[in-house]
């Protein structure tokens, strides 16, 4: 029937989408569903501050208004850079010092080096663990099972 066909196509598309996340870290990050599932995985590892920081930096770069840049920069600093923050990200001391020096006149790219370090950390450490995680593997298995049951 048409409904079975539509369901089969949707499951197949989901399977292709979820499988594509293993092709590259950028493919995962560029996909909203992939990002959400990766975020769930990071929460389970108590390292979701890395993704939250990365996303906050991405949003900051899209900001045009100076007042909003200053406000967002301050919030990102307090949330992720300050050594007093409970969600402090792990960045080099030199990068942290540079950010501290530039906080008086913040720009939308003030966190670029820190964001690059956090991206590299997630890519090198979290991403391979995600691909082998129960969260991702069970998703793939359930999609495969759904695909098989439609045959």
Automatic annotation (TrEMBL):
Limits of the RGS domain: 24-140
Domain of life of the source: Eukaryota
Secretion signal span: none
InterPro entries xref list: RGS, RGS_sf, RGS_subdomain_2
PROSITE patterns registered for this protein in UniProt: RGS (PS50132)
Protein name as catalogued: RGS domain-containing protein
